[in-house]
Amino acid sequence: MIIAIEGIDGAGKNTLVQHLRGELDIPVGVLAFPRYEESIHAQLAQEALYGRMGDLTSSAYAMATLFALDRHGAKEQLLAAADSPELLILDRYVASNAAYSAARLADDSVMDWVFDLEFGRLGLPKPQLQIYLATDVEVAADRASSRSAQDASREKDEYEKDGNLQAATAAAYGRLAESNWAGQWIATADKGIIIDNVRKLVGE
């Protein structure tokens, strides 16, 4: 099965993923999006986010398409995981595209476009559970800044530098979770609640 961890930059997604791996008694795989190390589409998006692709970032639809094509590149792995008794945890998935795009455009109708693109035209599997790690926006911003200061390779990109975008994205995630967009959601910053729900889902 597939579980997706969602949240704004600095929310603690990777920490939660590793915590879940340690708490569960079943085989757990992890896949993080964007796949900057192996996907040309993710690499192009990253170049754009650091100002090296001209005006590409000015189009929310163009950026969303690059991120969607990155996930499409892992389609076979995702489909295999969806039919497997093992668990694949995703650090970001399709909802990330929906939330950031809606925040950038101030228009939730783009969420339907993302849904149709990724789950429809590209045929990606829906996750069995989506977890919105609802970390306070200011706390997440402080973490992202601290991470950037301590590690030169983690310099903030254009999205991470935009505090208003991060706040709007957090609000968009909240609306996605409230509507159970593309399936079941949990929205909380409480790791204990998250772990309990994941254990129930996997039958532990």
What does the largest sheet look like? Answer: 5 strands, parallel
Say how many strands there are.
5
Number of domains: 1
CATH H-level name... which superfamily? Answer: P-loop containing nucleotide triphosphate hydrolases
The best one-word shape is globular
| N-to-C CA distance | 14 Å
Enumerate the strands of the largest sheet in spatial order, edge to edge or round the barrel: 2-3-1-4-5
The mean pLDDT is 93
C-alpha-based Rg, rounded: 16 Å
The name CATH uses for the topology is Rossmann fold
- What fraction of the residues are assigned to beta strands by DSSP? 5-15%
| Helix residue percentage | 55-70%
CATH architecture label name: 3-Layer(aba) Sandwich
Uncertain stretches of 5 or more adjacent residues: none
What's the number of helices?
10
Keywords: ATP-binding, Kinase, Nucleotide biosynthesis, Nucleotide-binding, Transferase
Protein name: Thymidylate kinase
Pfam family, one: Thymidylate_kin
GO biological process, one term: dTTP biosynthetic process
Layout of helices and strands:
Blueprint lengths: L1 E5 L6 H11 L4 E5 L7 H10 L10 H13 L2 H8 L4 E5 L2 H12 L3 H13 L7 E5 L3 H14 L7 H4 L1 H16 L6 E4 L2 H12 L2
Parallel strand pairs: 1-3, 1-4, 2-3, 4-5
Characteristic key phrases:
single chain, 204 residues, alpha/beta, 12% strand, globular
Task: Walk me through what this model shows.
GO terms for molecular function: ATP binding; dTMP kinase activity. InterPro entries: P-loop_NTPase, Thymidylate_kin-like_dom, Thymidylate_kin_CS. One of its GO terms (biological process) is dUDP biosynthetic process. This is Thymidylate kinase. Pfam families: Thymidylate_kin. The chain is an alpha/beta fold and 204 residues long. It has one domain (2-202): P-loop containing nucleotide triphosphate hydrolases (Rossmann fold, 3-Layer(aba) Sandwich). It contains 10 helices and 5 strands. Strands 2-3-1-4-5 form a 5-stranded parallel β-sheet, sandwiched between helices. α5 crosses α9 (163-178). The chain is globular and about 50 Å long.
